[in-house]
Amino acid sequence: MSGSVLEIKNLHVSIEDKEILKGVNLTIKGGEFHAIMGPNGTGKSTLASAIMGHPKYEVTEGSISLDGEDVLEMEVDERARAGLFLAMQYPSEISGVTTSDFLRSAINARREEGEEVSLMKFIKQLDKDLDFLEIDQNMATRYLNEGFSGGEKKRNEILQLMQLKPAIAILDEIDSGLDIDALKVVSNGINKMRNDEFGCLIITHYQRLLNYITPDFVHVMMQGRVVKSGGPELAKRLEEEGYEWIKEELGIEDETVEQNA
Amino acid sequence: MAKNMPEIEEYKYGFHDKDVSIFRTERGLTKRVVEEISNMKEEPQWMLDYRLKALEHFYERPMPQWGGDLTGLDFDEIVYYVKPSEKQGRTWDEVPAEIKQTFDKLGIPEAEQKYLAGVSAQYESEVVYHSLKEDLSDLGIVFKDTDTALKENEDLFKEYFGKVIPYSDNKFAALNSAVWSGGSFIYVPKGVETSTPLQAYFRINSENMGQFERTLIIVDEGASVHYVEGCTAPVYTTNSLHSAVVEIIVKKDAYCRYTTIQNWANNVYNLVTKRAVCDANATMEWIDGNIGSKLTMKYPAILLKGEGARGNTLSIAIAGKGQVQDAGAKMHHLAPNTSSTIVSKSISKQGGKVSYRGLVHFGRKADGARANIECDTLIMDNESYSDTIPYNEILNDNISLEHEAKVSKVSEEQLFYLMSRGLTEEEATEMIVMGFIEPFTKELPMEYAVEMNRLIKFEMEGSIG
Predict the structure, then answer these.
(1) Domains of chain A
(2) pTM of the prediction?
(3) Are B316 and B290 in contact (CB under 8 A)?
(4) R_g over Cα of chain A
(5) CB < 8 Å to B411, chain A
């Protein structure tokens, strides 16, 4: 057994009756790191939110399955407990709830009653992960994301990733707003997760994140679809030449979802 | 999103026990009822005279036409005095078995053993159990039921009784002054500080019962005390009335904290007048939690009359189905450099209505006074209501007043975020609500915070969807 399989087939997603995704096909297996790249407005974040089940996004066609189970039939929390994780671009602030209380609840949500993580074990692992991500210990006692800087919020998302150890993680622009040092730290956290059991979908529109995390597969999204896939060399070429050559190759004038090709 | 919603549990304290009362006045409020109460208690003539004057005032005074709807309150249907037992117990063994059972169910004797310095338990109209740890009485602290204090400490009693809240203050203060029974009397001598709280527990058992406890707390210079009260009642289809008067005197450099966790059944009208007076550099804190009742109208007040006096009110109010919480705070800045803080947290759900109604007054002498008001409301669904009604009276230019009001809903984004980490919708909602009231629960002693969290969880169950 080498991890889970997330299979997305012909996914169409609308928000307020406007179609954003127009037939996405993608398969992510345990042990694989996928990167989805593409300019702004091409549907990348919509894909991330739709996989996790954000109520604003309506799936109108297609399927998502995790190890053969129909993900679209699951509530958001069921998807999480089935092994999916979404590191969000704009994590919510939850006043009055400390980061550590929240984390412990989230860990215990995956466990049976009576099997809850012991406080000592939890604190030990939390301290370790905080150190690894170079996060000040006091973040654990601050209210979740409240008053956090952009960089702190991103580190906190990766902290949760490390603590919750999902089967498949989707990282939605985890690199946005990070300076180079923070980017390294966050990348270290993600790389530490790498093993045969863990699959990851990294959404970014900057190639620079991929200097620190080497993807196995690179996909380019335009007009709400995956228009090109390749290996790490594709990312390199995008960095050097931008997206214009792909648009030319495929005869695309406007890459955003606003246009119907 | 909603699924598998749990059944709404019954109000946990809604049980009632067999009536074991040994005396009760007839229904309705007459001069004879007042005389009977006073007579039963073998009171001095001056107290009877006071009661009768208050009764006159009660008759004359019109019903308040603001706040909540009081039309369901029928003064003729209420029993104003019920004596539950022959005498007051000093040990739980001396309390009639049926009544002790009630308090066992409520967990009072257990809590007393664990963390309370003194306990008073009132059942219907009288305090049936009372204790104070010996080391505290050795320090000169007086903690008694108010009736006993009138007998044993008459001079001290007479000096302060009715001085902070005269019977003419409002219709329900007049009512309480006419028929008051039970309540706590506390005197903390100069410089004496208590670290563990004194607790009073109020329980109504009878149907159509009126409970009118009267509490008087005097904290002498440099002394400090924390008093906690809790209240529950059985669920009946008819209405009961709880109308207390609480008067507090905080002298120079003294400190008093008064914590209430009110969890009356939702057939109880809770109409309470609470007021404290602070001398120079004294501090008064009302920590006021209103979870139960049909209608609560309560605005704990602080008169800051000495220079540098401080007042804090921290409250939460939760209004569910059929409930109205009309609560708030009053701060009167009557001296220079006084300061006050009001933090009000309200939650309405399932059609409940919660209002913050507050007054901040700056008198002519209030140079350099500061007040800070913060009202946060969380509305759980589209059928529930909230209102913020602040009044400010400013008679001095040299003051500072800040007011911040915020209304929020449990947002879709917050729920999505928490649920994406594996919490169910119910757990996620509960977490957001608990976070919202955290500024309140963190002020409670540990044991009460645990109890409070439990109560809120219980209240929130089934409130989604």
Answers:
(1) 5-95+166-250 (3.40.50.300)
(2) 0.85
(3) yes
(4) 18
(5) 92
